[in-house]
């Protein structure tokens, strides 16, 4: 009896799965869109779980296989999903047709307080929070913050010099310590001395470190809002006590000290003073509780540590295998140190054009975020291929593949900072390490300063050499990140004052 029930259940499930797969295929064929029929139900998500590597690599296989198609239907349980291939269509989704594609494409569940941040918010709540946090990144604020980042970079060099053990091996973790100190100091105003071993670093590392659980959770959230809601999935619950406690303490202390530091804590005080945030167009209201403010802090912390460390890391990887480019960077850095008596101010860092070109090219070849997601919220049409997209469709757009497409960047595997020289003929229409359109990264200008501070101070005192352990670059298993593994960067001290 028991066996018969199991057998009937199994057959029923198989028929159900078969019907979903067929339905997915029919859905896109009816719209004249090619469908990736290898896994009709779970599409590339299945490959992502069963193969080593990052999600952007799985999308890359499809990008190669279906190049020339405007977009490709992919299985995503019972939700229609499109992988957008043509760069013009990508631009349409990310930038041009904001009315139809302003949704992040991932559903966080209500109980996950810290997930209620700008990255994952949608609609009028997103608009209110994005408007409230934008003043944190004005030019005047960034100039103020730069002194703190620069101080963290100087302290980091001292720390590196005192710990020769860190000169060899995978330096990613080491670079994260600098990024954490810079973010904690510049954005949160925590500590006047750079702290290289802080509880914030532990949290930032944990949040961004991929685990089987976080990979499955995030994939289900992207693939099927229904299943994610049904299971009550959460990503950040375990950090709530620490982060909400820490943000409450910092803001309350700032209120008591009654000093202005023009950072995140000051913005929080202002938001709380103004009371409930209201969107007049829709009547949406948002209470500036410590929970929601901490959610923003959590994302800023994670974003200021992992991707920024990634860019510095890949910049060093490329410089460590291109001595001629490294020499030019060293020359520019040394000239500026000597000309300005070792003081690298905000204006000085902005003068270092060649170093900036090198960082841009590192983010071209190896963008830290390899793909973006959106959800269609209003029926629309993609211009290339005239593809009808219905509200509710999940959209996947490549970054890595576009940055490494020979039709957009000739010889994409060649590391060539001249692509970003002033007057270069190469178009940067599709350059998007920070995304595109109204949901583009809010911290882009901030990040550029932090990366430059790290690169410039480390390279003033060290030279770098790269040892790649495999012939092909390998990447960590992660849904959105592009994190090289099995490649070491060696720091070798330079003979400077
Ligand atoms: C190298 C460092 C960084 C890279 C490469 C990066 C990249 C990105 C990308 C690709 C997006 C998605 C954009 C889109 O959907 O079009 C994004 C969004 C975002 N980033 Fe960054 N980011 C970095 C650092 C930061 C930092 C330091 C902060 C804050 C301090 C930050 C805050 C945000 C926020 C809040 C969003 C969500 C924006 C929205 O949905 O409105 N990021 N970032």
Explain the overall architecture.
- The protein is 51% helix and 10% strand.
- α9 packs across α10.
- By secondary structure, it is of the alpha+beta class.
- The protein contains 18 helices and 12 strands.
- The strands form 5 sheets. Strands 1-2-8-5 form a 4-stranded mixed sheet. Strands 3-4 form a two-stranded antiparallel sheet. The protein has a two-stranded antiparallel sheet with strand order 6-7.
- The chain has a single domain (31-493), classed as Cytochrome p450 (Orthogonal Bundle), CATH 1.10.630.
- 45% of the residues are buried.
- The site of protoporphyrin IX containing FE has 27 residues, from α13 and α18.
- Protoporphyrin IX containing FE binds at residues 94, 118-119, 130, 187, 299-300, 303-304, 307-308, 311, 368-369, 372, 433-437, 439-443, 446-447.
The appropriate CATH architecture is: Orthogonal Bundle
Helix content: 40-55%
Cofactors, ions and other ligands in the entry: protoporphyrin IX containing FE
What is the N-to-C succession of helices and strands? HHHEEHHHHHHHHHEEHHHHEEEEHHEEEE
Counted by DSSP, the helix tally is 18
How many domains is the backbone divided into?
A: 1
Provide the residue-averaged pLDDT. Answer: 93
Number-wise, the strands total 12
Rg measurement, Å? 24 Å
**Class inferred from helices and paired strands:** alpha+beta
Strand order of the largest sheet: 1-2-8-5
CATH superfamily: Cytochrome P450
Can you tell me the overall shape?
globular
Termini separation comes to 83 Å
- Low-pLDDT runs of 5+ residues are none
Output the CATH class name.
Mainly Alpha
Strand content: 5-15%
Return the CATH topology. Cytochrome p450
The largest pleated sheet is described as:
4 strands, mixed
């Amino acid at each position: 009896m028991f066996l018969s029930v199991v057998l009937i259940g199994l057959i029923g499930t198989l028929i159900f799965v078969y019907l979903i797969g067929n339905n997915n295929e029919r859905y896109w064929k009816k719209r004249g869109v090619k469908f990736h029929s290898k896994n009709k139900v779970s599409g590339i998500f299945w490959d992502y779980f069963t193969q080593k590597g990052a999600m952007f690599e799985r999308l890359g296989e499809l990008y190669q296989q279906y190049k020339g198609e405007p977009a490709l239907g992919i299985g995503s349980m019972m939700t229609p999903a499109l992988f957008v291939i043509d760069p013009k269509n990508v631009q349409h989704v990310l930038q041009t047709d904001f009315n139809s594609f302003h949704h992040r494409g991932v559903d966080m569940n209500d109980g996950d307080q810290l997930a209620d941040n700008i990255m994952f918010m949608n609609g009028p709540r997103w608009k209110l929070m994005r408007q409230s946090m934008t003043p944190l990144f004005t030019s005047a604020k960034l100039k103020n913050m730069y002194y703190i980042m620069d101080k963290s970079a100087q302290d980091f060099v001292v720390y590196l010099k005192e710990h020769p053990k860190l000169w060899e091996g995978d330096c990613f973790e080491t670079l994260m310590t600098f990024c954490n100190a810079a973010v904690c100091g510049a954005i949160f105003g925590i500590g006047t001395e750079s702290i290289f071993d802080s509880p914030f670093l532990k949290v930032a590392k944990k949040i961004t470190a991929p685990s089987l659980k976080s990979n499955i959770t995030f994939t289900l959230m992207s693939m099927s809002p229904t299943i994610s809601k049904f299971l009550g999935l959460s990503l950040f619950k375990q950090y709530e006590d620490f982060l909400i406690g820490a943000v409450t303490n910092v803001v309350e202390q700032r209120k008591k000290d009654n000093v202005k530091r023009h950072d995140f804590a000051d913005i929080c005080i202002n938001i709380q003073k103004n009371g409930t945030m209201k969107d007049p167009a829709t009547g949406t209201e948002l209470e500036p509780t410590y929970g929601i403010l901490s959610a923003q802090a959590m994302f800023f912390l994670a974003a200021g540590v992992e991707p920024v460390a990634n860019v510095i890391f890949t910049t060093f990887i490329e410089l460590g295998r291109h001595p001629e480019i490294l020499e030019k960077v060293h020359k520019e850095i040394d000239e500026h140190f000597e000309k300005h008596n070792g003081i690298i101010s905000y204006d000085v860092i902005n003068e270092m054009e060649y170093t900036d070109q090198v960082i841009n090219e590192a983010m071209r070849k190896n963008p830290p975020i390899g793909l973006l997601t959106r959800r269609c919220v209003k029926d629309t049409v993609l211009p290339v291929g005239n593809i009808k997209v219905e509200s509710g469709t999940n959209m996947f757009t490549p970054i890595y593949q576009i940055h490494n497409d020979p039709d957009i960047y000739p010889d994409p595997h060649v590391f060539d900072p001249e692509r970003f020289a002033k007057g270069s003929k190469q178009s940067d229409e599709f350059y998007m390490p920070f995304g595109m359109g109204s949901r583009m990264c809010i911290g882009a200008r901030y990040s550029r300063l932090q990366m430059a501070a790290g690169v410039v101070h480390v390279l003033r005192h060290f030279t770098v050499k790269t040892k790649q352990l495999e012939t092909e670059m390998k990447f960590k298993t992660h849904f959105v990140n592009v994190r090289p593994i099995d490649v070491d960067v060696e720091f070798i001290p330079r003979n400077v004052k």
